[in-house]
Amino acid sequence: MNTLLNHRTFIFTALSAVLILLSACAPTPFSDRYQPGADTVFLWRNEPIPLEPGWRYVDEVSTHVRGELQDSFLTPVDEIRSLIFVREEQEHPAILILSRVVKTSQVDIFRYLGGTKTIIGGYPYRENAYGLSANSTDPEYGQYFEKIRASGLVPAPEYKVRILDRLPVDTTLIRIMELTPGKSHLTLPAYGKLYPQERPDSIRHRTF
């Protein structure tokens, strides 16, 4: 009888330990990076992204995207976690999307982001301008507009997109997308085209 009781106690203790471990390992909601009323958002460590007055938080989006590797047919799958905000000063809302890429593989790295630079919160970001249709069929961008519509808002047919991105390290991408109603002839490329990746050999990462 004592043996059976000890066995059950052991099983209960083991299951409790597993549940505690799983709870501890559960991912923190990405929306926790924004606190209501805050004027700053931190997507990567202590690097601040100023949040101007007037932006209203809508929701978070987590979506998987396919990257492109230089000189390879492989397509790494990454996860983009985003916070969506809107500003309702016109007939159609302006949209702000703050994103961080969570790489599923630490083997592949992002290639250097060249181009025009601007400073945000004391850190350099690459800056580009594109256009984007609210009816985009892109798997990533389409989800953002779905969230906007689900919140009861009607997006403009076309948006001008100011996109700012930064690589704090070569496996982490931070991105700011500001969408304002308007039309541009240069369409925003898909994730894989916008952020090409490479798989460096072991020599390049060797330390001496």
Automatic annotation (TrEMBL):
Signal peptide boundaries: 1-26
Keywords: Signal
Protein name: Lipoprotein
